[in-house]
Structures are given as structure tokens and as C-alpha cells.
Specification:
The complex is a heterodimer of chains A (about 300) and B (about 290).
Chain A lengths: L2 H12 L19 H8 E2 L6 H23 L1 H7 L1 H14 L14 H7 L8 H19 L22 E2 L4 E5 L3 H17 L3 H16 L6 E8 L2 E7 L1 H11 L4 H9 L9 H14 L3 E2 L10
Antiparallel strand pairs in A: 2-6, 3-4, 4-5
Helix pairs in contact in A: 1-2, 4-5, 4-7, 6-7, 8-9, 10-11
Chain B lengths: L13 E4 L5 H7 L5 E5 L9 H12 L2 E4 L13 H14 L4 E4 L2 E4 L2 E7 L5 H18 L3 E4 L6 E2 L6 H12 L2 E5 H11 L3 H7 L5 E7 L2 E2 L4 E2 L8 H14 L4 E4 L7 H9 L1 H16 L1
Parallel strand pairs in B: 1-2, 1-13, 2-3, 3-4, 4-7, 7-9, 9-10, 10-13
Antiparallel strand pairs in B: 5-6, 11-12
Classes of the chains: A mainly alpha (about 300), B alpha/beta (about 290).
The structure holds fe (ii) ion.
Amino acid sequence: MKLVTLQRRMARAVMTPLTRTERMRPRTAAGGSMRAEAATFIKPNDRLTSFERLEIYNRQYWFRLLSSMIEDFAGLQAVLGSERFEQLCYAYLTDCPSRSFTLRNLGSQLTTWLKKHPRWLGAQPVLALDMCRLEWAHIEAFDGPEAPALAPEDLAEPGRPDFRLHLQPHLQLLSLQYPVDDLALAINDSAGDNSAAASNAVGERRKQRRVQAVARMKPRPIFLAVYRLENSVYYRRLQREEYALLAAVRRGLPLERCLVSAFRGSAMPAEDRPAAIEEWFHNLSLLGLFCRQPEDPDLRP
Amino acid sequence: MPANRFNGFTDYGVGIGLRVPHYQHILSRKPVVDWFEIISENYMIDGGRPLQVLDQILDQYRVVQHGVSMYFGSAEKLNREHLRRLKALVKRTKTPWLSDHLCWGSVDGRYTHDLLPMPYTFEAARITAAKIRQVQDCVEVPVAVENVSSYAEFHLSEMTEWEFLNEVAEGADCGILLDVNNIYVSSRNHSFDPYDYVNSVPAERVAQIHIAGHSKYQKYILDTHDHPVIDPVWKLYERALQRVGPTATLLEWDDNIPSFDEVHGEALKATRFLAAAATAALAQAI
Ligand SMILES: [Fe+2]
């Protein structure tokens, strides 16, 4: 058996989802005996069978990946409940195994995958998807690239018709239906309380109450910027027009067209708009969210 | 070996792994630590707090890079993106050498994120050595390969693990990061004498040593890095030092991480053994 063949066979076995009791499955994905499969390449010893030795790696693989998913998507786990979330992770990671050298990217396909497999989104699909998008945006904002910020005076450039702005690559723009920003912070808080004193069950109940409270709300549009400032991640609610403006900037449109885009269908009175624009630009440039055109292709979002 | 071409002719003493729970303590109290080992992949990112902390550490301490996912032993080609980021990090840290494991972990572009054991075959040794050479050529610092703990053996194997390590290190002309805890764990799991292993390692290639704790189960031992070092591992370490001389030593503690002082205190127990090895080396020289 060549090295690559052995590695393919072992990886296939190791990546097979565990049983409900967290053991290795008796059957391979192709329906054969896992015992027989293990015995073809792994030696038994005086204490463990080939199956049991392979199982150590099978369990280790899933424990490591599941704990990474729980760490990255604690909010989604709270929305769906631990058991459903775990089953979702098995299904997702079977369809989309890691293709990166780092676990940081493990959830990179989750939003897209969930849109294609909505049955995993549970009783509150919109809320669950919003939470998933927020949590991935948080990861991107946490360690995404940062380009040199534009100074406020750079924005005073005379209004050339093709003048374009650029947004920090780590800035993520989200259009949501539920206040998952508040919910995520509340869930993190209860996780903190939980480790300090109360039991797991108490923390779990508190999380569930918070999720239920948000789930009962009527969906309404919420626009959010997720970004990094001095190495901390922040969530900032945006006005609808401000969000539309930034989304247009991100699409690479000239500033003039971004402004048209911002107020398309807007109910904001015309006389209020200049002051609003000024305030947005002032705040966003104070936060360093406009930057020079990233020259490094890696800095382009 | 102290100061050899596999550790960039440095003479480092006892170090510990740089871990998130200790960031605050290290940056505010600035404890005296000979050197820190970082997990390369944690800093192969584009920006944010981890890099800021790393830069602050680099201002004050010596840092050596240790990787967990280059997978020299995977049959597939090296990941170009991984290499590119590793090289960039090497420039940032100025690590005198770097290490990763003698294992595989990915196939057809899919990653297990685990350190999977090698079949000890000549084909595997050839593939692994060639990849270590490629990494070495790319990053332009010496590369040391680390023996892993394992829980399985393959029918395919044509030699012992230590023969395989020799074969690879020779073929790649690379250094060795000798993990004495891993030797101990594997020796118990596969019923061999750990001293046979330590006695066969090409001493002149050892760039660095790892010590760590592990967890004992009924039928096997798991390399968990969540306990102090046990006596038989200290004994094995002592024997390794007799062979290789006083060598840069690092304590790994990755789970249930206690306070900085506790981890550092455990690591500093190595000092006694290093001093004895230095005295012995001196006596021999005279
Ligand atoms: Fe190690």
C-alpha cells in the first residue's frame, strides 16, 4: 500500500462522524465493517484492537473540531440548543471538511452551507442565520487585515466625479432581522457568570431565556458594522442609509454614486441629509474605517 | 547539542510555551524567561491583537517558532499559502530555527488538524525528507523535526520509529526536536524500551528538547500536555542530556493551564539537569 493510499483510508475513517455515545461507528461510510477496515492497516496490541486504536484518532478529530466550532459559534449553539448544534456540526464538517491549515477558518463556509441546508436552522431559521453571520463576521474582524487609515483631511479632496473611498478590509457589514449583536453579548456574559459561580444548568437556562426573548421579537431590519479598533472588536448599529452608503463603497462605486445609492427609497427629509452625511463621515473616519486603496491583494476583502 | 547548526548556533536554556492565559502576566510583570516558544499558526494571521502581543513579546524576549500543521509526512504537496505565511512570520520573529512534527495530517487538501502517526517505510521517509528540505529552502532557517506521541502502529512499517527518525533527519539533513515525553508515551503504548529510542537518536542533530505531562488511561497514555512532568520522563530527559549535552529545553503545557509561575516553575526544574549535563560536558572537554 502506498503512503497516499494509507492516508486516504485512515483520513476517511478518522473523519467519519461518531455515534450518539461518541464512539467510532461500526460501519464505514461505504457500508463495510469498520473493524475489518481498521485491521487492514492498523496493528492491534496486547491491550487494544485495531478498531480501538483507530477510534482514539476518530474521537480526537471530532472532539477537537467540535470544540473549535463551539468556541467560534457559541451564539448559534445557544439559539439551536447544544444537541442540534452538534448534529449540525457533524453534517457541515462532513460536507465541508477543513481545507485550511488553521482551525480559524473552520466555519468559513457555514453561512453558505446553512443557506443550502435550511433544515439545520431549527425553529427560528432567520434568527439562527443572523447569529451565524454575526459570529463569522466577528472572526473576520478580529484578525482581518488592516490598511493605513485615511486621515479626516484626506476626505476633503475636491469632488472629482470618479473619487472612490475604500473601507478597512476587517470591517464587516451586516443586514440583519434580529438584534443578534445584543444577544451575542448577553450570551457571552452569561457564559462568564456561569464559570464564576452558578452551575452549567443555571447558565444554560439563562441563555435559553435570552434566546427566547429575542425569538419572540418581530423581525425588523437592523444594520450593523462589525470592525476592529485598537485590537478589540466592536458592533455598531448603522442607519439604513449609512449602511447603503457603505455597501456601495465596498462595491467600489464612485463616491457620487454611493451617495445616490444611500438615499434610494429613503424617507429621510432632503434637508436633513447633508448633516447626516457629514456626521457619518466624521464618525467613520474617526474610527479609521476608511483607508487608502489596499495595494496588497491580500488586503482586499 | 548546545549551539549547533540545527539551532542557528544559539545557546538557549529553559523556555516555556507562550499561551493566551499568560499574556497579561507577562506583559505587565515582565518575568525573566530565557525564551518563549510560539505556535506559528496562531500568528500567521493578517492583523489584530495576537500580532500586537507578539510584537510586544518580541521587543523583550527571544522567541522560537513551533508549527503544528506543516505535515511533513503528508503524501500531498506542501500548502503554498501556509509556506508563504510561515516565511513572513519567520521574518517578523527572527526565530533562529523552527520546528514541526514528524507526522501527517492532511490528504487531498483536507485537514484533520491532528498529528497522525507515520507508517515507518522507506517511501514515507523519502517523501517526508524531501518536504522538510523544501520548507528549509523556503524559510531559510534550520528546521527541526519533532517525534510525536502515537496510539497506533501500521502493518506497513519496515523499521522502528527511531530508525525512521534517523532516516528522515539524514535524508533531509535537518535537526531534531526531541520530545522525551512523546518517546515515553509511545513506548508505553507500543511496548518498547524508551532508552533504546533515546540511545539511537543522532545526538549531533538535536536542536531542542520538549518535556511535558500526559494523561494515563486504563489501556493507553494520551499526550495531553495538562500535567506536570512525571519522574520517568525526567529520567529520560537526563539520559537524553547525557547524550546530546545541555540543549535548549521547553516545557509544553496546553490544557488546564495553571498560573504563569506554576508553569515556569515546573519548566525550571530542568535547570538542575542542564547544569549537570554542562558540568559533564566540561569535564569531558578537559
Ligand atoms: Fe512536543
